[in-house]
Amino acid sequence: MHRLFKTLLATILLVSLTACASVPTATRSAMPDDVLPGYGASNVRIDSFTVSVPQSLKANERNLYYPVGDIVWRGEPRGDRHAQVKAIFEAGLRRAAPMIEGARPVRIDVQVLRFHSLSEKARYTVGGVHDIDFRYRLVDVATGQQIGPSKDVGADLDALGGQAAMAAEGRGETQKLRIIAHLSRVFVEELTVPGGHVNANLGLLQAINNL
Q1: Under 8 Å between Cβ of 186 and 34
Q2: pTM above 0.85, yes or no
Q3: What is the extent of the structural domain holding 192?
Q4: Which UniProt keywords apply (predicted)?
Q5: Which terminus has fewer CB within 10 Å in the chain: N or C?
């Protein structure tokens, strides 16, 4: 009933936005350790990384305004969505690594918890939010020991729609490239800024995602 209510609420909102605009609960597969504040402004650098996208996360390919699922991704041809999301995170980490210049080499292990982007219907009308959640931990390369606790991170990004989306595509600014650049910034902030990354406040659609 909760999932049905959430889907209906999102659909009603998006349909109403389409008329006036010009332009479910995620499956969790836990890593060890309690979820506590992370590593902002720590003296580390990324020596290596792993990315896990559990098969327990459900992908949804239905072309609705708000498909219910853990993975909704249409920025690439239909295929193995888990593998595509994994590659996006790996690209973000590779881009971030040279910008994290601490002295202590670490391995960062990332587990994707949710990757809910836009359906075609939402992208070509009102846009929305790329709802991205992940968990990570740091492991000291020299000792093999985990440094501190694991941390859950919300990394939502505004998702372009309608003419804005088409204009971005024309500039070569695809959904995939925007998300990779965004994840890179998130990882840099997590490991260099006191307190780590602060999730953006993206309004009502983001609030619906978090129901």
Answers
A1: no
A2: no
A3: 2-24+33-209
A4: Signal
A5: N
